[in-house]
Amino acid sequence: MGRVDNDEDYVSIVWIIAATALLTSALTLGGAILVFRYLMRVHLGRLRKMLDEELTEIADTIEDRVRKGVDEGAREVLPEFRVEVREGFKEAMVSTVSGDVLTQTTQNVAKKGSQMLRAILFGDEGK
Hints:
The chain is mostly helical. The protein has one domain. It contains two helices and no strands.
């Protein structure tokens, strides 16, 4: 290179150096951004698949645990529930067989029938 004789040449050289530095920095940054986006797209796809698999596995585990808890709870409560239902059914059958329900129904029908007959014959409302 030759010698620089005046100040204008120094300013021109400084501007050329600054512009070159700025341009190379911008190109480097642009290239880095493009590489970053490409790598993120590739790795995010893999990461998304891995996360989906993990979430599916966690959901299955939770579902199994809940199912086991419900089954265990049902096993604990179901025998008592069966006993309660059986006892209630027995009580209903005994009261039906012993005639409590039948007796009450017969008495109600007889009472209503006599009231109606009295009303028809005597014009009395059953007072």
